[in-house]
Write the structure tokens for this entry.
Amino acid sequence: MGAHQSTAAKCQDKNSMEDIPNATINPDSVNPNAMAPTIPRGPTGNTGAMPQFSRPETFEEKLYRKFKAEPLVPIGCLTTAYFLGSGIKSFYNRDPKKSQTMMRLRVGSQFATIMIFVGYAGMNAFTLDFAPGMASPTDQMGGVKKKREDDE
């Protein structure tokens, strides 16, 4: 046990600051904030505040939001459902001419609904914003018309 203490004492002596030249600590050189814990900042820059998460959107809220953003898509879906129901009813009543007409109208309303959906998706995906500071084509044409009016 004595040998163990002497080994520990030797290690402590080797790591002491007395053996290292110019290893004195000046109180003026110590940063007083160095040991202070850092407080994480939230996305808004508030210190110490936990980020606020929004609650999940309910089905009714999402349905209302979608109806408001793209009102023609649900109208097209309802039209398709009407033609489908009417065509099935005509088929059940053994009226092949009306059933065939309703099924053709159903296909047409489905196509129109899909085209409306694609149109909304394209309208949301593409913008006419060009490079910042660059004039848009409508601005350029407006300038041309003004020049022509000034020439006359």
Remarks:
- The two ends are 111 Å apart (CA to CA).
- The mean pLDDT is 74.
- The CA atoms of residues 56 and 131 lie 36 Å apart.
- The longest helix spans residues 96-125.
